[in-house]
Predict the 3D structure of the following.
Amino acid sequence: MAKVIGVRFKKAGKTYYFDPDGLSIKKGDCVIVETIRGVEFGEVVMGEMEVADDEIVMPLKKVIRVATDEDKIHYAENKEREKKAFDICLKKIQEHGMAMKLVDVEYTFDNNKIIFYFTAEGRVDFRDLVKDLASVFKTRIELRQIGVRDEAKIVGGMGPCGRPLCCKVFLGEFEPVSIKMAKDQGLTINPSKISGLCGRLMCCLNFEQPCYEQLLETLPRVNDLVMTPDDETGTICEINAISRKVKVKIIKEDGIEIYKYFNTDEVVVVNKYDEDYDCDTSDLESLDF
């Protein structure tokens, strides 16, 4: 076990462990720490605690100091510098005619490096741009290409629920989201309905999935053969886990298909479908998940 504190460098960024090194540090304090990017300014989001050694990425770096008033002023000044650097880089990109979109700029706390985040459809040769920026800022320059989910996390926006994007507000890390989650939750498999602003599957599908998995374990499955209260046999073609209702397809003697809704406790499973349910994704070929 090791004593650590949790430090975050962005509002909804990943939390990293650091050794408090005997300093009196509590949640909400600001600290100066050394990272692989250099000296950084971060906020303590987890007070001193003990964690197992296998949960720590070694070697565990120590906190340099609790941030002083001067450190906080310097951090605020860097934020202003980032705005100016963004405008300068934007002009340089236009001058070079490069097919890239500038998303964000970060100064390391010690001003030894400036990181420019951008998106592009393919690989970009930005060597001339780096040289140009280095001649302007007289420091190390790093251009980092990011994905559309990272762009949404940085830029932010409003989701279809009318609230700020989860990734911008509280999601520290992105979790995998699959089409099966959307199908389990009875959503229409339509890219425009189940995708977020980034064009990927909405992260909130992951939040609700454990509840649906628990409910679906107690319900019959799609394609199960069931007996209805009217002594008719049919196959389940749709499940609403929240309301515990199923849609049953019944084929009459004359070949006519009819559909009826029943509560799950009103139908009796006659024959279970013997294969795991795989959702149809034939209409999603154009969507990159």
Observations:
- Residues 153-216 form one domain.
- The helical segments are 69-96, 127-137, 148-155, 166-169, 179-184, 191-194, 204-216.
- The mean pLDDT is 89.
- The two ends are 39 Å apart (CA to CA).
